[in-house]
Write a structure and sequence with these properties.
It is built from four helices and no strands. By secondary structure, the chain is an all-alpha fold. It has one domain.
Length: 98
Amino acid sequence: MAAPSLYSQRSPVQNSNPLKPAALPMTRIFLCTAALMLPMLTSALAQEITASERAACQVDYDKYCKGTFPGGGRIIRCLSSHYGNLADACKKVVDSKK
């Protein structure tokens, strides 16, 4: 009886990847597409503020929320946390965004 060839035996390392090699390109395509679409989705969900609304809250923003990174409603949340100190015009803007 002949000894089994080293090339005919499967290495345990070959089966350690749970993803099939054919699935890897599709996974990469999906992840790249998701990464490209995420900024579009978040900007679509962002609250739009007009120039007049921005002007109404600019002084309060500079005073209370200067270090707040825009997006995701963070500025409105910051202004809301200082609601009692806001100018009346800015309070109206914050109220309209709730």
